[in-house]
Amino acid sequence: MAAASPPAPPAEPERRALSIRTVRRGDLKAVIELDALVTGNRKPAYWNSLYQRHEEAVITGQHFLVATLGSQVIGFVIGEVRDWEFGSPPCGWILAIDVRPDARLLGAATQLLQVLCQGFKRAKVSKVRTLLARENTLILSFFRSQGMMISPFIPLEMDLAP
Ligand SMILES: CC(C)(COP(=O)(O)OP(=O)(O)OC[C@H]1O[C@@H](n2cnc3c(N)ncnc32)[C@H](O)[C@@H]1OP(=O)(O)O)[C@@H](O)C(=O)NCCC(=O)NCCS
Fold it and tell me: Does domain 18-145 sit in CATH 3.40.630.30?
C-alpha cells in the first residue's frame, strides 16, 4: 500500500511589504479614517477638496503620498514647494504626516519623508520646512530623528476681533 503523502506545509503568510506611492482616489476613504483616528476629527469634505487640488496642482509641486502595508493604506504625507513665500527662496513644506497607531515604528514615516524629499530635490529645492505644535513631542521626536532642526523663522499669530 502506498504511503500517505505528507501534509501540505502551511501557506506562507502574506508578505506585507511596506511601500510608498502617490495617492489614488480609492485611498481617500482610508486617509479620512486615519486622519479621524489620529486627530479625533472626521473631515471628508476637506480631504476630498485637498485631493481635488492635488490632482490639479501636482505639476506645480504638490505631493500627496501614501504608505501601504500589503494592500492597506497605513500612512500619508502631504507637502508642497512654495516659491518665495515668507521672503525665502523656494523650499519644500511638509504640511501633514500621519501613520496608523497600529503600524508605527516600522519606518513608514521615514520612507514617506524620504520619497517626499526626493520629489522636492527633483524640483530643485534644497531646503525642507514644517511647523508643528509645541506640545506634540511625538512628531517633534520624529522630525529630530530625520535631522530637522529649529529654523531661523518664528511663527506669529493674533486673534481677530469679531
Ligand atoms: C510621528 C509619526 C508620523 C511617526 O511615524 P512612524 O512610522 O512610527 O515613524 P518611523 O517608524 O519612521 O520612526 C522614525 C523615528 O522617529 C522617532 N520616533 C517615532 N516614534 C517615536 C516615539 N513614539 N517616541 C520617540 N521617538 C519616536 C524614532 O527616532 C524613530 O526611529 P527609531 O525607530 O530608529 O528609533 C507617527 O507617530 C504619527 O503619525 N504620529 C501622529 C502624527 C501627528 O500628530 N500628526 C499631526 C501633525 S502633522
Answer: yes
